Amino acid sequence: MPPQKLTFGQKVKNHFKRFWWAHLIFLIVSSLCIALPLAYVGFPNIAQSQLNDATLELTSQVITDPTPDAVHLEMTTISRSDSIFRPTLSAMNASLFLEDTLPDIIPFGQLEIPQLKSTHETEIIINQNLRILNQDQFLAYNRRVMSSEEYRVAIRATADLHLGGLPVAHPAFNKVVTSKGLNNLKGFEVLDFNLSLTAAPGQPNMFGMVYLPNPSPMTLTLGNLTQNLFVQGQPIGQAFIDNVVLHPGNNTIPMYSITDQAAVIVLLTSKFRDGVLPVDIVGESVVYNGQSLEYFAAPLRENPLFAKLDVGKALEKLGLPLGALTGTGPLPPPAAPSTGPAPSPGT
Questions:
Q1: CA atoms of 117 and 79, how far apart (whole Å)
Q2: Which of 2-16, 93-107, 158-172 reaches the highest mean pLDDT?
Q3: Cα 298 from chain centroid?
Q4: E-only strand ranges, the chain
Q5: Is residue 264 exposed (0-12), middle (13-18) or buried (19+ Cβ within 10 Å)?
Q6: How far is CA 93 from CA 56, 128, 269, in A?
Q7: pLDDT given for residue 88 in this prediction
Q8: CA triplet 84, 88, 89: central angle to 5 degrees?
Q9: pLDDT confidence of residue 321
Q10: Compositional bias (Pro residues) spans (predicted)?
Q11: What mean pLDDT is reported for the chain?
Protein backbone atom coordinates (compact mmCIF):
# COMPACT_ATOMS: atom_id res chain seq x y z
CA MET A 1 0.00 0.00 0.00
CA PRO A 2 1.23 3.43 -0.79
CA PRO A 3 2.19 5.48 2.28
CA GLN A 4 -0.67 7.38 3.84
CA LYS A 5 -0.59 11.07 2.98
CA LEU A 6 -0.03 13.25 6.03
CA THR A 7 -2.47 15.97 6.86
CA PHE A 8 -1.35 19.59 7.24
CA GLY A 9 -1.66 19.37 11.01
CA GLN A 10 0.49 16.24 11.13
CA LYS A 11 3.11 17.93 8.99
CA VAL A 12 3.20 20.91 11.38
CA LYS A 13 3.44 18.59 14.36
CA ASN A 14 6.34 16.66 12.85
CA HIS A 15 8.06 19.94 11.94
CA PHE A 16 7.95 21.16 15.51
CA LYS A 17 9.18 17.80 16.78
CA ARG A 18 12.24 18.01 14.53
CA PHE A 19 12.98 21.74 14.80
CA TRP A 20 11.74 22.66 18.28
CA TRP A 21 15.16 23.96 19.22
CA ALA A 22 15.17 26.41 16.31
CA HIS A 23 11.80 27.82 17.33
CA LEU A 24 12.94 28.13 20.93
CA ILE A 25 15.96 30.12 19.84
CA PHE A 26 13.75 32.30 17.66
CA LEU A 27 11.37 32.92 20.57
CA ILE A 28 14.21 33.89 22.89
CA VAL A 29 15.78 36.19 20.34
CA SER A 30 12.41 37.79 19.57
CA SER A 31 11.74 38.36 23.26
CA LEU A 32 15.13 39.96 23.70
CA CYS A 33 14.55 42.16 20.67
CA ILE A 34 11.43 43.46 22.37
CA ALA A 35 12.62 43.53 26.00
CA LEU A 36 16.06 45.04 25.49
CA PRO A 37 14.88 48.18 23.67
CA LEU A 38 12.19 48.60 26.31
CA ALA A 39 14.74 48.27 29.11
CA TYR A 40 17.57 50.27 27.60
CA VAL A 41 15.66 52.78 25.47
CA GLY A 42 12.05 52.86 26.56
CA PHE A 43 12.62 52.96 30.33
CA PRO A 44 15.17 55.81 30.23
CA ASN A 45 12.80 57.79 28.03
CA ILE A 46 9.92 57.13 30.40
CA ALA A 47 12.12 58.06 33.38
CA GLN A 48 13.10 61.36 31.76
CA SER A 49 9.50 62.16 30.89
CA GLN A 50 8.28 61.44 34.41
CA LEU A 51 11.06 63.53 35.95
CA ASN A 52 10.26 66.41 33.60
CA ASP A 53 6.61 66.34 34.66
CA ALA A 54 7.39 66.48 38.39
CA THR A 55 7.13 69.89 40.09
CA LEU A 56 9.05 71.47 42.96
CA GLU A 57 7.64 73.84 45.59
CA LEU A 58 9.87 75.70 48.05
CA THR A 59 8.19 75.67 51.47
CA SER A 60 11.02 76.83 53.72
CA GLN A 61 14.51 78.29 53.36
CA VAL A 62 16.68 79.32 56.29
CA ILE A 63 19.93 81.20 55.74
CA THR A 64 22.27 81.42 58.76
CA ASP A 65 25.95 82.02 59.52
CA PRO A 66 26.70 84.11 56.42
CA THR A 67 30.35 84.73 55.56
CA PRO A 68 31.87 86.41 52.49
CA ASP A 69 32.37 82.97 50.88
CA ALA A 70 29.49 80.79 52.12
CA VAL A 71 26.17 80.59 53.95
CA HIS A 72 24.51 77.81 55.88
CA LEU A 73 21.38 76.63 54.10
CA GLU A 74 18.43 74.66 55.43
CA MET A 75 15.82 74.18 52.72
CA THR A 76 12.64 72.16 52.41
CA THR A 77 10.93 71.58 49.09
CA ILE A 78 8.03 69.37 48.05
CA SER A 79 8.30 67.31 44.86
CA ARG A 80 4.97 66.33 43.33
CA SER A 81 4.52 63.64 40.69
CA ASP A 82 1.52 61.86 39.14
CA SER A 83 3.67 58.94 37.92
CA ILE A 84 2.58 55.38 38.70
CA PHE A 85 6.25 54.46 39.12
CA ARG A 86 8.03 54.82 42.46
CA PRO A 87 11.74 54.91 41.62
CA THR A 88 14.65 55.78 43.89
CA LEU A 89 17.00 58.63 43.00
CA SER A 90 20.55 58.38 44.28
CA ALA A 91 22.09 61.33 46.12
CA MET A 92 23.36 63.96 43.70
CA ASN A 93 25.03 67.34 43.48
CA ALA A 94 22.90 69.95 41.72
CA SER A 95 23.99 73.31 40.35
CA LEU A 96 22.03 76.45 41.33
CA PHE A 97 21.95 79.16 38.67
CA LEU A 98 19.91 81.96 37.13
CA GLU A 99 18.20 81.24 33.85
CA ASP A 100 19.67 84.25 32.07
CA THR A 101 23.06 82.50 32.06
CA LEU A 102 21.74 79.76 29.75
CA PRO A 103 22.90 77.94 27.69
CA ASP A 104 26.35 78.08 29.32
CA ILE A 105 25.17 78.17 32.90
CA ILE A 106 27.18 79.92 35.64
CA PRO A 107 26.32 78.26 38.98
CA PHE A 108 26.48 80.37 42.14
CA GLY A 109 26.20 77.33 44.41
CA GLN A 110 25.79 73.57 44.54
CA LEU A 111 23.08 71.69 46.42
CA GLU A 112 23.74 68.31 48.01
CA ILE A 113 20.43 66.53 47.36
CA PRO A 114 20.05 63.35 49.46
CA GLN A 115 18.76 60.00 48.17
CA LEU A 116 15.04 60.17 47.46
CA LYS A 117 12.27 57.58 47.22
CA SER A 118 9.72 59.05 44.87
CA THR A 119 6.08 59.22 45.99
CA HIS A 120 3.13 61.35 44.97
CA GLU A 121 4.49 64.03 47.34
CA THR A 122 8.12 63.76 48.38
CA GLU A 123 9.66 66.06 50.98
CA ILE A 124 13.24 67.03 50.16
CA ILE A 125 15.27 68.37 53.10
CA ILE A 126 18.67 69.94 52.53
CA ASN A 127 20.96 71.02 55.37
CA GLN A 128 24.43 72.10 54.29
CA ASN A 129 27.02 74.81 54.02
CA LEU A 130 26.57 76.39 50.60
CA ARG A 131 29.87 77.59 49.20
CA ILE A 132 29.55 80.60 46.91
CA LEU A 133 30.97 79.50 43.55
CA ASN A 134 30.55 82.83 41.76
CA GLN A 135 30.27 86.11 43.66
CA ASP A 136 28.72 88.07 40.79
CA GLN A 137 26.00 85.49 40.27
CA PHE A 138 25.28 85.17 44.00
CA LEU A 139 24.95 88.96 44.13
CA ALA A 140 22.56 88.83 41.15
CA TYR A 141 20.54 86.14 42.95
CA ASN A 142 20.24 88.27 46.11
CA ARG A 143 19.22 91.27 44.02
CA ARG A 144 16.31 89.24 42.68
CA VAL A 145 15.36 88.01 46.12
CA MET A 146 15.34 91.59 47.44
CA SER A 147 13.62 93.38 44.55
CA SER A 148 11.17 90.77 43.21
CA GLU A 149 7.65 89.93 44.19
CA GLU A 150 8.41 86.52 42.69
CA TYR A 151 11.68 85.11 41.39
CA ARG A 152 13.00 81.92 39.73
CA VAL A 153 16.06 79.79 40.43
CA ALA A 154 17.13 76.92 38.16
CA ILE A 155 18.57 73.58 39.30
CA ARG A 156 20.53 71.19 37.11
CA ALA A 157 21.98 67.74 37.81
CA THR A 158 22.24 64.23 36.41
CA ALA A 159 20.29 61.69 38.44
CA ASP A 160 20.81 57.95 38.90
CA LEU A 161 17.30 56.50 38.86
CA HIS A 162 16.64 52.96 40.10
CA LEU A 163 13.43 50.97 39.56
CA GLY A 164 13.34 47.28 40.47
CA GLY A 165 15.66 45.13 38.37
CA LEU A 166 15.70 47.49 35.41
CA PRO A 167 18.99 49.03 34.30
CA VAL A 168 19.88 52.27 36.06
CA ALA A 169 18.61 55.29 34.13
CA HIS A 170 20.47 58.61 34.07
CA PRO A 171 17.85 61.30 33.37
CA ALA A 172 18.68 64.99 33.44
CA PHE A 173 17.36 66.72 36.57
CA ASN A 174 16.48 70.17 35.18
CA LYS A 175 14.08 72.08 37.38
CA VAL A 176 13.04 75.66 38.09
CA VAL A 177 11.82 76.72 41.53
CA THR A 178 9.57 79.78 41.74
CA SER A 179 9.31 81.53 45.08
CA LYS A 180 8.08 84.78 46.60
CA GLY A 181 10.76 87.43 47.12
CA LEU A 182 11.14 90.27 49.61
CA ASN A 183 9.47 92.71 47.18
CA ASN A 184 11.72 95.63 48.22
CA LEU A 185 10.42 95.26 51.79
CA LYS A 186 7.24 96.95 50.62
CA GLY A 187 5.29 98.11 53.67
CA PHE A 188 8.40 99.11 55.64
CA GLU A 189 7.49 101.58 58.35
CA VAL A 190 9.05 103.41 61.28
CA LEU A 191 6.45 102.59 63.91
CA ASP A 192 7.51 104.98 66.66
CA PHE A 193 10.60 106.86 67.75
CA ASN A 194 11.89 109.12 70.48
CA LEU A 195 14.56 111.81 70.46
CA SER A 196 17.33 112.59 72.90
CA LEU A 197 18.53 116.20 73.03
CA THR A 198 21.24 115.45 75.60
CA ALA A 199 23.19 112.72 73.78
CA ALA A 200 26.89 113.38 73.41
CA PRO A 201 28.16 114.10 69.89
CA GLY A 202 28.56 110.89 67.90
CA GLN A 203 26.22 108.99 70.20
CA PRO A 204 22.70 107.72 69.34
CA ASN A 205 20.09 110.45 69.69
CA MET A 206 17.04 108.78 68.12
CA PHE A 207 15.51 105.47 69.15
CA GLY A 208 12.54 103.63 67.68
CA MET A 209 11.01 100.48 66.23
CA VAL A 210 10.79 99.57 62.55
CA TYR A 211 8.42 97.20 60.80
CA LEU A 212 10.06 94.94 58.18
CA PRO A 213 7.62 92.71 56.25
CA ASN A 214 8.83 89.44 54.73
CA PRO A 215 6.32 87.86 52.32
CA SER A 216 8.73 85.07 51.34
CA PRO A 217 9.18 81.59 52.90
CA MET A 218 12.80 82.55 53.66
CA THR A 219 14.36 83.18 57.06
CA LEU A 220 17.34 85.43 56.37
CA THR A 221 20.12 86.16 58.84
CA LEU A 222 21.65 89.51 57.90
CA GLY A 223 23.49 90.83 60.95
CA ASN A 224 24.10 94.52 61.63
CA LEU A 225 22.69 97.01 59.13
CA THR A 226 24.01 100.55 58.72
CA GLN A 227 21.87 102.89 56.64
CA ASN A 228 22.33 106.49 55.53
CA LEU A 229 19.50 108.98 56.06
CA PHE A 230 18.66 111.71 53.54
CA VAL A 231 16.00 114.39 53.22
CA GLN A 232 15.69 115.45 49.59
CA GLY A 233 19.29 114.43 49.01
CA GLN A 234 20.66 116.17 52.10
CA PRO A 235 22.36 113.78 54.56
CA ILE A 236 21.01 114.02 58.10
CA GLY A 237 22.66 111.00 59.76
CA GLN A 238 22.77 107.23 59.94
CA ALA A 239 20.43 104.53 61.26
CA PHE A 240 21.53 101.22 62.76
CA ILE A 241 19.59 97.96 63.10
CA ASP A 242 21.57 95.25 64.88
CA ASN A 243 21.32 91.45 64.80
CA VAL A 244 18.72 91.41 62.04
CA VAL A 245 17.04 88.07 61.31
CA LEU A 246 14.13 88.41 58.89
CA HIS A 247 11.52 85.74 59.56
CA PRO A 248 8.60 85.04 57.21
CA GLY A 249 5.74 87.41 58.01
CA ASN A 250 5.92 90.52 60.19
CA ASN A 251 9.14 91.62 61.86
CA THR A 252 9.34 94.45 64.41
CA ILE A 253 12.94 95.34 65.23
CA PRO A 254 14.62 98.06 67.36
CA MET A 255 16.47 100.82 65.51
CA TYR A 256 18.68 103.66 66.71
CA SER A 257 20.17 106.60 64.84
CA ILE A 258 22.86 109.22 65.07
CA THR A 259 21.40 112.32 63.44
CA ASP A 260 22.63 115.83 62.75
CA GLN A 261 20.10 117.60 64.94
CA ALA A 262 21.23 121.06 63.82
CA ALA A 263 20.55 120.11 60.18
CA VAL A 264 17.19 118.66 61.18
CA ILE A 265 16.17 121.88 62.94
CA VAL A 266 17.11 123.91 59.85
CA LEU A 267 14.89 121.67 57.74
CA LEU A 268 12.01 121.98 60.21
CA THR A 269 12.22 125.77 60.33
CA SER A 270 12.46 126.18 56.56
CA LYS A 271 10.99 123.55 54.23
CA PHE A 272 9.08 121.24 56.61
CA ARG A 273 7.33 123.48 59.09
CA ASP A 274 4.64 120.84 59.64
CA GLY A 275 7.25 118.76 61.46
CA VAL A 276 7.15 115.77 59.10
CA LEU A 277 10.40 114.88 57.33
CA PRO A 278 10.38 112.69 54.18
CA VAL A 279 13.41 110.47 54.80
CA ASP A 280 15.14 108.24 52.28
CA ILE A 281 16.94 105.32 53.94
CA VAL A 282 19.80 103.97 51.85
CA GLY A 283 21.77 100.88 52.80
CA GLU A 284 25.44 101.45 53.58
CA SER A 285 26.76 98.14 54.92
CA VAL A 286 25.81 94.75 56.31
CA VAL A 287 28.18 93.15 58.81
CA TYR A 288 27.93 89.72 60.43
CA ASN A 289 30.50 88.52 62.98
CA GLY A 290 32.72 91.42 62.00
CA GLN A 291 32.72 90.51 58.29
CA SER A 292 31.25 92.75 55.62
CA LEU A 293 28.69 91.07 53.35
CA GLU A 294 28.53 92.99 50.09
CA TYR A 295 26.12 90.48 48.51
CA PHE A 296 23.52 91.64 51.08
CA ALA A 297 24.59 95.29 51.29
CA ALA A 298 24.43 96.04 47.55
CA PRO A 299 20.77 95.00 47.09
CA LEU A 300 19.78 97.10 50.13
CA ARG A 301 21.78 100.03 48.76
CA GLU A 302 20.09 99.73 45.37
CA ASN A 303 16.58 99.57 46.84
CA PRO A 304 16.22 102.53 49.25
CA LEU A 305 13.47 102.57 51.82
CA PHE A 306 11.29 105.58 52.59
CA ALA A 307 9.63 106.83 55.74
CA LYS A 308 7.83 109.96 56.90
CA LEU A 309 9.13 110.88 60.34
CA ASP A 310 6.91 113.10 62.48
CA VAL A 311 9.74 114.90 64.24
CA GLY A 312 7.32 117.55 65.51
CA LYS A 313 5.43 114.92 67.50
CA ALA A 314 8.69 113.54 68.93
CA LEU A 315 9.70 117.05 70.03
CA GLU A 316 6.37 117.56 71.74
CA LYS A 317 7.08 114.45 73.83
CA LEU A 318 10.10 116.35 75.15
CA GLY A 319 8.01 119.39 75.99
CA LEU A 320 9.31 121.36 73.00
CA PRO A 321 6.41 122.32 70.72
CA LEU A 322 7.31 122.62 67.07
CA GLY A 323 5.85 126.14 66.99
CA ALA A 324 8.57 127.28 69.38
CA LEU A 325 11.16 126.39 66.72
CA THR A 326 9.29 127.61 63.66
CA GLY A 327 7.86 130.77 65.24
CA THR A 328 4.32 129.62 64.51
CA GLY A 329 3.25 128.90 68.05
CA PRO A 330 3.78 129.85 71.69
CA LEU A 331 7.05 129.24 73.46
CA PRO A 332 7.16 126.39 75.97
CA PRO A 333 6.23 127.40 79.52
CA PRO A 334 9.15 128.44 81.71
CA ALA A 335 10.49 125.93 84.17
CA ALA A 336 8.82 126.06 87.57
CA PRO A 337 10.90 127.82 90.27
CA SER A 338 12.75 125.63 92.71
CA THR A 339 10.84 124.88 95.90
CA GLY A 340 13.75 123.26 97.70
CA PRO A 341 15.35 124.67 100.85
CA ALA A 342 17.65 127.66 100.51
CA PRO A 343 21.34 126.80 100.49
CA SER A 344 23.12 127.17 103.81
CA PRO A 345 25.53 130.04 104.12
CA GLY A 346 28.97 129.22 102.97
CA THR A 347 27.79 126.52 100.64
A1: 11
A2: 93-107
A3: 15
A4: 55-64, 70-80, 88-89, 92-97, 109-113, 116-117, 121-131, 150-158, 161-162, 172-180, 189-195, 206-214, 218-231, 234-246, 249-259, 276-288, 291-292, 305-310
A5: buried
A6: 17, 12, 62
A7: 85
A8: 120
A9: 85
A10: 330-347
A11: 84
